[in-house]
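re: the backbone from monday

yeah here it is again, tokenized this time
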């Protein structure tokens, strides 16, 4: 399989440095458009569609391989290999942020640094350890039951909650339309892989300089989960940004690109 074509990969810009952008579940590489265009002025920029989403080749999706986020991490590593990429900056949103962290833990030389946007090592609370993930086990089971019952109906209700910014409903509409393109069984499997995951023990093995970007009112990832992630990764910094909802790169791209710009500038000067 030609990985580059299968992921509907887009490469733009030029220069000696490369940034790879990974979108979250239910989204698509188009959600990085504004930020990717900005960085393409000085970087080689790579965007792609996850297995099961967007314009990705349907043959990429594997029910057995993508039943955990590790399947998406393996895809990311394979795509970088196909592009002959090592030492790039990786920017991942939500589940793709965790996929990037897992890929980096498995191969520390794959990326030079990471930017994790609204990512979480575990979405479910863990009362035994005091961990706050944002969802109880009952919450997650109810969410998955709703998806299984009527994925399209669930997507229509979930989109405005995840996107936030009620005064700009066009963002929720765009996300709902993207979600609706998912095959229901693939959408359910992907969200189950994310919401039932627990990669807290892996995070100390992510040794790269990492920027954790988080909004203060994310309905999927509460601030305590972001604080945990930043504390668990040895060389990570948490930045709470002035944006709302779970998709800051969509609703406030200027805020996100400025934070990434500052992070990369600090990396280059150190």
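seq for it, each position gets an aa:
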């Amino acid at each position: 399989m030609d990985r580059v074509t299968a992921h509907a990969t887009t490469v733009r810009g030029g220069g000696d440095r490369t940034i790879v952008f990974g979108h979250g579940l239910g989204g698509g590489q188009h959600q990085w458009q504004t930020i990717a265009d900005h960085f393409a002025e000085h970087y080689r920029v790579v965007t792609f569609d996850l297995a099961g989403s967007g314009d990705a080749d349907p043959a990429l999706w594997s029910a057995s391989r993508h039943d955990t986020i590790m399947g998406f991490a393996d895809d990311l590593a394979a795509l970088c290999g196909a592009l002959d990429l090592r030492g790039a900056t990786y920017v991942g949103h939500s589940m793709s942020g965790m996929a990037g962290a897992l890929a980096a833990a498995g191969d520390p030389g794959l990326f030079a640094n990471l930017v994790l946007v609204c990512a979480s090592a575990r979405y479910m609370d863990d009362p035994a350890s005091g961990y706050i993930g944002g969802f109880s086990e009952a919450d997650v089971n109810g969410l998955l039951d709703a998806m299984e019952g009527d994925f399209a109906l669930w997507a229509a209700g979930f989109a405005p909650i995840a996107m936030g910014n009620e005064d700009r409903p066009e963002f929720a509409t765009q996300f709902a339309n993207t979600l609706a393109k998912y095959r229901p069984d693939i959408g359910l499997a992907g969200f189950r892989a994310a919401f039932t995951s627990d990669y807290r023990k892996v995070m100390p093995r992510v040794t790269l300089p990492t920027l954790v970007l988080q909004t203060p009112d994310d309905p999927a990832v509460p601030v305590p989960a972001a604080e945990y992630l930043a504390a668990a990764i040895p060389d990570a910094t948490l930045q709470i940004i002035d944006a709302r909802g779970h998709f800051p790169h969509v609703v406030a791209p200027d805020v996100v690109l400025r934070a990434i710009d500052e992070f990369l500038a600090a990396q280059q000067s150190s």
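The mean pLDDT is 95. The chain has eleven helices and seven strands.
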